Amino acid sequence: MHLKSNSGCAVKRLCTKYAKGFQLTLLLSLLMFGSTASQALNSREQRLVETVTRIYGDRAGLRVTTWRKEMALYHGLPEHKQLAKVNQFFNQLNFVNDDKLWGKNDYWATPLEFLGSNAGDCEDFTIAKYFSLLELGVSDKKLRLVYVKAITLNQFHMVLAYYSSPSAEPLILDNINPEITTASKRRDLLPIYSFNGKNLWLMKSQNGQLAGKSSRLSLWNDLRAREKSLQLCKLR
């Protein structure tokens, strides 16, 4: 089976509406860290900043620096607070469709590409949150990237689901609606399939029906390969 995400995502103006409230926070962070951009970062993090700066410019490097410093602050927090912090941080970025940003019909950006470009579509918001929470120590078993249909908007969309336990109702992290709520409160979303770093589920039931490994998703494989090699796509 070969599954590929459609390029359609939720409407740009809704994402922009909720992102504007956080833009000042990100700007203040950039100004605060700007004069000491490389301090307090380990050698790996400095390499990330240098790589992003080379491809996307100085302000992109500052965004990555801010991300790394924020992540250091989130370590040790209770998981529910980590969810809120990560969700809020990435919801500051701008919504732009793949064809306009990358010149491709469907492209899943790595967190570095997302931060470097300061924009992305729903998959990019979700992927960045997923990898950030993994880094903070949240188990992969608790997280799923969920491909849904946004019923009201009549468009395909992606969100991140968090399960506090295998039988728990998941919490939904979304770039359209910044409030983290339980799945039952998101009647505007119709799940289609979900996956994490290992498995793929078809949403034929509340918990989903295991359909194999997530490696069956070609866009996911491409993303993981670029993430490991630090390969960054240039903007259109």
Automatic annotation (TrEMBL):
Any one Pfam family match given in the protein's UniProt record, by short name: Peptidase_C93
Keywords tagged on the record:
Signal
Which N-terminal stretch is annotated as signal sequence?
A: 1-40
* InterPro entries in UniProt: Transglutaminase-like_Cys_pept
Q: What is this protein called?
A: Sulfate adenylyltransferase
Record the organism: Vibrio ichthyoenteri ATCC 700023
